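Lab notebook page, bench 4
Experiment: in silico fold of construct C2
Operator: M.H.
Input chain length: 349 residues
Purpose: comparison with the prior construct
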Amino acid sequence: MSLDRESKLAVTLGDPAGIGPEVILKALADPAAALAVTVFGSRAILQQTYDGWRSSHRAAASLANPETLKIIDIAPDSKWGAIVPGVGNAASGAASFAYMERAIAHTLAGEFCAIVTGPISKTNWQAAGYNYPGQTELLAEKAKSQRFGMLFAATSPHSGWTLVTLLATTHISLRQVPDALTPELLSEKLELLVECLREDFGIERPKIAVSGLNPHSGENGKLGKEEQDWMIPWLETQRDRFPQVQLDGPVPPDTLWVKPAKVWYGLAKEAHDGYLAMYHDQGLIPVKLMAFDKAVNTTIGLPFVRTSPDHGTAFDIVGQGIADASSMKAALQLAAELASRRTAVKIHR
């Protein structure tokens, strides 16, 4: 997929007390990230990060100079108190929420084709009175998207293969998962995954693996009855619904990731094009094990592209200059690629 450097990307700073400012400046310093980027956040905090880097006698070229960047400056609201690097609080939560709101509004107005979001702290959002499970739900609400999903993509540096994983459920407790999973929910998520593989990744006849819920996919009802009671019959209906798609499952969760791991490390040549995991850790433990610094979180089902690095705020290493910007670079690149493909699809329709 060719990289469209004219795709206009909105980049949010994330929690300003976290590593978002550092990884964004590091990523934008890379010549490979010479994209049409506008940063939504505090110019003062970006400058503070840059100046701190220089004062530590590090090579200034390792970070983009904020003076060279296009920034929509959003000053912190003083009513929340001070923002302290490395110490997340209600002030930093309120600031990161404000960055998101502005970026979404500008994107929905047609000024940008994609949003790349820096890492936020859900705890700090809640401390500021914003009770969203995460950025995904805020994006969907503002975009009025009823169908949306949290998908992770990563391209292997060993084999060039791309791992694509969609979560059926996201930020809920394990106790809630069996009740949240229904044929209707899985039908919606599977449809989103098929659309994403076709429209964003150009795979017309995808092969998709659907995970089971229980150990050994229930082992014929001995270890859980969800597979026998409704998941297996549901899969049969979906094979009729998507005749051009190879649907395999429910695959036992403990063996689901063996083949993709082998392909990731170049030990095998073929795996599925997409994976549908039933809950957060079932999908993300293998993704982060294989691709912690490569994976990109993308929200599918929105009227615009959204990507994010697959890591958190890392308050404990702020100011040390050791934050890895690889995932942010990957998020920027994937956002530009997906936006470019969507633009091309619209032109040809």
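Observations: The two ends are 19 Å apart (CA to CA). The chain has twelve helices and eleven strands.
Next step: discuss at group meeting.
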